[in-house]
Amino acid sequence: MTSTAPRVAPPAIAPSSAPSSPSPSPSSSPSPSPAAAPLVARAAAELVGTAALVAIVVGSGIQATELTGDVALQLLANSLATVFGLGVLIALLGPVSGAHFNPVVTLAECWTARRGGPGVTAREAAVYLPAQTAGAILGAVLADAMFARPPVAWSTHDRGAGHLLLGEVVATAGLVLLIFGLARTGRSRMAPVAVASYIGAAYWFTSSTSFANPAVTVGRAFTDTFAGIAPGSLPGFVAAQLAGAVVGLGLVALIFRPGPSRSAGPEPEPAAEVARTHG
Questions:
Q1: Is the pTM of this model over 0.85?
Q2: Any idea what DSSP says for residue 213?
Q3: Mean pLDDT, to the nearest integer, of 192-205?
């Protein structure tokens, strides 16, 4: 869960000796481009953002189970907290790092960049991925500590059934389709609301409750709570998420083809400008 205000770079300011550039429109973001931020700052944003996301997912799950024994209400509380928290994190950290918070999104963007599109480089991806994973683990530990639970307790919640893996393929494919679709149609500013809303819906319409994020999946193995996942279920879930990313990119290529019907529309934006992830 992603997943990414979105990363929208303002028009460059021309030197005084060069012809003046057009003034930015009122809707332009005043935030600097993520590419302009030092890599260490972007990595820190990914670590902190992923940690906060997992803390929200795990912490709200613990709180819900302590307040009610009704599983439907527990899931409702967990999903609502995730929707609100994810939207805020995307709006806050999107201008810095793109608010990936998700290795699937980072890898997908790196792939599109290698094929000539905008996105992160292999070097940047190599920094983002461990930052996201470390952040996810820290977030789970923090959530457990806030509720006076053992900081590390391996989850016993088995999620290895085939229908759950199918749910992860669907959830991740939909997330990638949304993120890159928004970017290709120049609507990345919708990311905080659109991505958070999708994740909230996917909590309910997928059998797996939509992890859709390898880093968050690893982090949730460190907590034996409502939101946890047994370590033995990790390989299947991560493989399903990677497969979902491939399906999602295929759908983007099929649906959002450049052509005359889109030539007069908004310019495509880097996919990293869109919210990404989930928990």
A1: no
A2: -
A3: 97
| Two structure tokens written together for 217 | 């999946």
The amino acid present at 74, given as its one-letter code, is Q
**Residue keyed to tokens 């998420």:** 241
8 A C-beta contact, residue 171 and residue 254: no
Closest CA to 194 of 207, 205, 181, 206: 181
Question: 115-169 pLDDT, tens per residue?
Answer: 777 789 999 999 999 999 999 999 999 999 999 999 999 999 999 999 999 999 9
Which of helix, strand or coil describes residue 93?
A: helix
- Is 272 buried (19+), middle (13-18) or exposed (0-12) by CB count in 10 A? buried
Residue given tokens 């905080």 in the structure block: 192
Please determine, for residue 276, whether its predicted confidence score (pLDDT) is greater than 50: no
Distance CA 84, CA 87 (A): 5
Q: Alpha-carbon distance 139 to 119, whole Å?
A: 26
**Residue 72, Cβ neighbours under 10 Å: how many?**
9
**Contact of 144 with 150, CB cutoff 8 Å:** yes
